[in-house]
Design brief:
single chain; about 350 residues; three-stranded antiparallel sheet; about 55% helix
Length: about 350
Amino acid sequence: MNAAAPDAAPATAATGSANTIGRYLANLNEQRQLSPHTVSNYARDLQELTAMVQTLPTHEHNPQTDEAPYASVSHAHIRKFAAQLHAKGLNPRSIARKLSAWRGFYGWLSEQIELKSNPVDGVKAPKRARPLPKALVADDAIAVVSSANPLKDSASAMQVCNRAMFELLYSSGLRVAELSGLDVRYMSSPGYTSSGWIDFDAGEVTVTGKGNKMRRVPVGAPALQAIHQWLAIRETLVKTDQPEYASALFLSERGSRMSPRVLQLRLKAHGQALGIPSNMHPHVLRHSFASHMLQGSGDLRAVQEMLGHASITATQVYTSLDFQRLAQVYDAAHPRAKKIDAK
């Protein structure tokens, strides 16, 4: 009988833990009236907490009450548990959800027994990996903007408008709101002042970006040509003498200023028509502009200025894109880049 005693203690502790979790889940269901699906998610997260608590050294367990094993958990333990989850490959979002569930449980437990503090307070999930912006390769980007309109006499006004907008997005790396706010030229009148405009003589565009900061960005010859072709048609769509609308560079069929949302939908439809698998949106062209400029020049500071980034940190993500491209070229071309199968 003495030999069986060590096996009985863990079973009792496990049963007590289950009772504690069960009472908390009942509270979520009956008092807070959470959905069965949410309660089920809490149950899984708390079962994982229980399994981790039971891995703590035996001397840290006190089986006098059902809650005692949880009461012995410290802030350091929770940090260790979170690190273990991260080491297993669990993504930061899932870890954050588990920590939230554990924090709520300890908040309830503090009402049942005396706790020094909530051990989960202040414990944060690992930072989510910042996804690299999607960018097209140069040939694909050129194909996207140049195929928006075949430049035939039969092309509709909106096809000509689309090409001018898409060319300018890629040519100058503008944000969609910056492009939408452009005027044909600088305008200043009572009640209205241009926030952005095109300067054909200088071959540049002036825009007002985030933080109300203005900047000037060069415009390439193909984009200037596409805008000239659009301007020849644009006058037929102007339907008002109000400066805010009459001066707008890009107009809808109704003669109103082109909205960012309409531009997004047009570019998405254009991408689908070309069979591009990824979701084509204005920021893809902005990212492509930045990546290709950096690949061609290596001048991070200049790219930062053209993008209108307040901090160079936001621009440095494109160095990763550039390195990825260099790595691909190296792997494909260098005779000593071939991987050797381990035997």
